[in-house]
Design brief:
- This protein is an alpha/beta fold.
- The protein folds into 2 domains: 88 residues, Uridine Diphospho-n-acetylenolpyruvylglucosamine Reductase, domain 2, CATH 3.30.43.10; 32 residues, no CATH class.
- It is 28% helix and 16% strand.
- The strands form 2 sheets. Strands 1-2-4-3 form a 4-stranded mixed β-sheet.
- The chain is globular, with a radius of gyration of 16 Å.
């Protein structure tokens, strides 16, 4: 089974892309860092899928670049050697809000929109 097939098996076809038009979105940011070129983009839904992707990337000696939002300024999310862009935009669920202690347990929230709204709804 190819790397592409394994990634699709982990995240599903709708959360995988090797389309150059999609990958182009991850090639640059707002910094002066030269453009890069990822080989694949995946959108995992949870920590289990992330673990499988990281394990597969390690076994295949392929770099992984996590991306948590659409705005970046320092070049850190630009793939330098191809590899897999790990788009974390699906990780946007608050798991628990502790009303007695300031804080909450959540999956990493991408784009900053889910957490404040959910917190306000609880009171």
């Amino acid at each position: 089974m190819s790397l592409k097939e394994k990634l699709v098996q982990i995240v599903g076809a709708g959360n995988f892309s090797d389309d150059p038009n999609v990958l182009k979105k991850f090639a640059t940011d707002l910094s002066l860092t030269p453009a890069g070129a990822p080989s694949y983009m995946v959108k995992p839904k949870d920590a289990e899928e992330i673990g499988k992707i990281i394990k597969l990337a390690n076994e295949s000696a392929i770099p992984v670049v996590p991306v948590s939002s659409g705005i970046h300024f320092n070049g850190a999310t630009i793939p330098k050697q191809g590899g897999i862009v790990l788009d974390l935009s699906r990780l946007n669920k608050v798991l628990e809000i502790d009303l007695d202690n300031p804080g909450q347990e959540s999956k990493p929230v991408s784009r900053g929109s889910s957490s404040p709204m959910n917190s306000r709804r609880r009171g």
